């Protein structure tokens, strides 16, 4: 059959229709009805896992016939019957899901989203990724033939097409399918055509840090210009955010607690880790483990490239101006102490003033108190209103010629308040002060651009952003870092040592004395890859949806008092419940498999501002669902009953 290509490089749709119907008629369970071709939809991928460095790995078992379109493979929480139109096409604009527990009460009269519903792709509310259209993301269920014999089939019945997509094995043997592929190959598309299967190894960095040759070059993707670039999910497909697919990447979410499936709502304390991060750390210890730098052997080269590659990923994630502005530390707490004990010791003097906000975690209070007691400094506090918002007018009154440092959180760990960070930084700089921003609670919930923020330092912990514990980051402006004295001495941070004199490296080595946490830095890089592939704007909007949903339902619980009701807040829901101690509520929820934090959250000053010593704190992440929130709220209703 000959097929014409029009001047716009598009198929003649009538001939494509004939080819498609000829193909599906001949397969097992061939279709009788002719299928009109209205537009060329995106290919339908069978569910797979996003492997290390973002590459797809095949599923181990497909337990549902393809033609049934399992709800867990498409959309945020499944496809509701209303999402399937009369032409039997699944339209991802429909936000309804099949996630709701049929036994849960109907909240359809609420102004919040429908109970149990989780947005599929938020219709047209979300920014689309380049080259992606929800209008074309249709799955025509009547285009997929019935599978022979069994409803279930193992993965060996699948094969990988040259394009990297999963296909049924018998499809590749059809002559007209081969002809159809030839036709499609003549069409110019903006999508990638060079996707690679996951090999279990990280992709090669663009320019190896170490001096060895490219022996350690692992699978990478070549761009049109021939340059090597990182192979990742963005090189394969750019799907809408899908909470069900995301949840498959987190093994611990299948854990059973007290006979119930775990519901992890303690994300402000620590986040769970995707399989990609777990596998990346394991791969490091199995194939790359070595101390970094200063060795002429292969494993040192691999470890150094992996470690410095992670630093580059952090730089990109924060939009830092230079890789030299990224310092690896144990976490946000150590980063703040580093600034206090290096820059603070060097530059602050008796009578100088430090400003913090009332919202701060103890980690952003105690180091400054210690320094103030040692050097005769004064600490001032920005007050908050009854919703937990910082009072900018009062902050301006605190600024003066003696103000040398302003240190504040971008997102409160106890209340979830999002502070007007850029405004606070700008006002501090007008007063001639340096600024440190604590981003421990912000990096996992929103995009961060340190150049736009213009803070002098920015800190965060890896375990808050789906990475390992024991690793974190201090960002600092490069000139400022190089002017600052080191805070620890030892190997790795020196250029030259004699018994009379030591010459230090510039940043970042200047502040990384001794053997660092190499494997977990690499794991942090994998976590940053993961959230970057999902897209921080999509994560932020999805979590905002969950927060609004949860807030409205919690308000219906008799005797509850929400602590922190700022209109601009992240996914934290602190509350107290009449008649119960916070630890009693936490223990009762634990019996239902629901993990929340009960206590003062290392933020006693702000809780006391609201007249409480502790709260119950559910906190959300992008792998949580509306159904989990329903179970939390129902458990609280049961307590009050």
Secondary-structure blueprint:
Blueprint lengths: L12 H14 L22 E2 L5 E2 L3 E2 L26 E3 L46 E3 L12 E2 L3 E3 L5 E3 L6 H11 L35 E2 L5 E2 L13 H6 L7 E2 L2 E2 L1 E2 L10 H14 L9 H21 L7 E4 L2 H16 L5 E5 L8 H10 L2 E5 L9 H7 L4 E7 L11 H10 L3 E5 L11 H4 L3 E5 L10 E5 L1 H6 L10 E4 L4 E3 L13 H17 L1 H19 L5 E4 L10 E4 L4 H10 L2 E2 L1 E3 L4 H6 L5 E3 L8 H15 L1
Parallel strand pairs: 13-25, 15-16, 15-17, 17-18, 18-19
Antiparallel strand pairs: 1-2, 3-6, 4-5, 7-8, 9-10, 11-12, 14-20, 19-20, 21-22, 23-24, 26-27
Describe the protein:
- This protein is an alpha+beta fold.
- The protein is 29% helix and 14% strand.
- The protein contains 16 helices and 27 strands.
- The strands form 11 sheets. It has a 7-stranded mixed β-sheet, sandwiched between helices.
- The longest helix is centred in the middle third of the chain and has 21 residues, at 298-318.
- The chain is globular.
- Residues 1-9, 28-115, 117-174, 187-199 and 213-238 have low confidence and may be disordered.
What tags apply to this protein structure?
641 residues; alpha+beta; seven-stranded mixed β-sheet; two-stranded antiparallel ribbon; 16 helices; globular; disordered N terminus
Morphology call: globular
What is the count of DSSP helices, taking H or I runs of 4+ residues?
16
Beta-strand content estimate: 5-15%
Our measurement of the CA-to-CA distance between the termini, rounded to an integer number of angstroms, reads 72 Å
Rg over CA atoms? 27 Å
The total count of strands amounts to 27
Question: Quaternary arrangement of the chains shown?
Answer: single chain
Structural class: alpha+beta
Strands of the largest sheet, in order across it? 14-20-19-18-17-15-16
How much helix is in the residues? Answer: 25-40%
Give a quick account of the main beta sheet: strands, pairing sense, barrel closure. Answer: 7 strands, mixed
Output mean pLDDT: 75
State the low-pLDDT regions, or none. 1-9, 28-115, 117-174, 187-199, 213-238
């Amino acid at each position: 059959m000959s097929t014409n290509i029009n001047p716009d490089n598009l198929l003649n749709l009538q001939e494509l229709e004939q080819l498609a119907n000829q193909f599906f008629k001949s397969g097992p369970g061939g279709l009788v009805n002719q299928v009109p071709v209205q537009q060329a939809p995106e290919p339908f991928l069978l569910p797979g896992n996003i492997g290390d460095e973002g590459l797809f790995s095949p599923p181990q078992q497909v337990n549902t016939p393809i033609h049934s379109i399992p709800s867990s493979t498409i959309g945020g929480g499944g496809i509701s019957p209303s999402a399937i139109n009369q032409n039997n096409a699944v339209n991802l604009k429909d936000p309804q899901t099949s996630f709701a527990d049929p036994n849960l009460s109907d909240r359809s009269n609420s102004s919040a989203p429908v109970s149990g519903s989780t947005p599929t792709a938020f219709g047209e509310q979300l920014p689309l990724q380049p080259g992606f259209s929800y209008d074309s993301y249709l799955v025509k269920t009547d285009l997929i033939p019935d599978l022979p014999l069994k409803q279930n089939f193992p993965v060996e019945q699948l094969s990988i097409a040259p394009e990297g997509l999963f296909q049924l094995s018998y499809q590749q043997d059809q002559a007209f399918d081969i002809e159809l592929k030839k036709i499609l190959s003549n069409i110019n598309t903006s999508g990638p055509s060079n996707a690679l299967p996951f090999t279990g190894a990280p992709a090669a960095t663009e320019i190896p840090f170490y001096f060895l040759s490219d022996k350690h070059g692992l699978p990478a993707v070549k761009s049109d210009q021939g340059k090597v670039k990182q192979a990742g999910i963005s090189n394969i497909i750019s799907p809408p955010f899908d909470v069900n697919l995301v949840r498959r990447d987190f093994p611990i979410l299948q854990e059973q607690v007290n006979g119930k499936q775990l519901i992890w709502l303690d994300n402000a304390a620590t986040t769970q880790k995707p399989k990609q991060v777990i596998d990346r750390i394991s791969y490091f210890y199995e194939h790359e483990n070595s101390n970094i730098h200063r060795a002429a052997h292969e494993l040192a080269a691999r470890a150094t490239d992996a470690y410095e590659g992670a630093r580059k990923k952090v730089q990109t994630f924060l939009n830092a101006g230079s890789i030299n502005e990224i310092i690896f530390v144990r976490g946000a707490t150590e980063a703040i102490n580093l600034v206090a004990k290096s820059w603070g010791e060097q530059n602050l003097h008796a009578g100088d003033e430090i400003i913090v906000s009332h919202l701060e975690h103890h980690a952003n209070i105690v180091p400054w108190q210690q320094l103030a007691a040692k050097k005769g400094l004064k600490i001032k506090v920005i007050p908050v209103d009854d919703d937990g918002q910082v009072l900018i007018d009062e902050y301006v009154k605190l600024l003066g010629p003696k103000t040398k440092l302003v240190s504040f959180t971008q997102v409160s760990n106890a209340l979830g308040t999002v502070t007007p960070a850029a405004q606070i930084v700008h006002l501090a700089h007008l007063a001639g002060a340096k600024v440190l921003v604590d981003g421990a609670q912000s990096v996992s919930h929103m995009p961060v651009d340190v150049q736009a923020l213009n803070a002098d330092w920015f800190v965060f912990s890896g375990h808050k952003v789906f990475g390992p514990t024991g690793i974190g980051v201090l960002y600092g402006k490069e000139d400022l870092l190089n002017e600052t004295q080191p805070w620890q001495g030892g190997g790795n941070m020196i250029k030259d040592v004699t018994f009379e004199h030591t010459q230090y490296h510039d940043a970042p080595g200047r502040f990384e004395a001794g053997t660092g946490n190499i494997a977990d830095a690499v794991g942090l890089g994998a976590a940053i890859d993961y959230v970057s592939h999902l897209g921080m704007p999509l994560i932020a909007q999805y979590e905002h949806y969950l927060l609004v949903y949860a807030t409205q339902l919690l308000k219906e619980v008799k005797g509850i008092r929400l602590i922190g009701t700022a209109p601009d807040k992240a996914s934290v829901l602190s509350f107290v419940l009449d008649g119960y101690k916070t630890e009693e509520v936490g223990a009762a929820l634990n019996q239902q498999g629901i993990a929340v934090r009960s206590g003062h959250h290392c933020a006693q000053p702000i809780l006391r501002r609201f007249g409480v010593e502790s709260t119950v704190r559910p906190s959300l992440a992008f792998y949580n669902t509306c159904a989990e929130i329903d179970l939390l709220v129902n458990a609280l209703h049961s307590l009050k009953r």
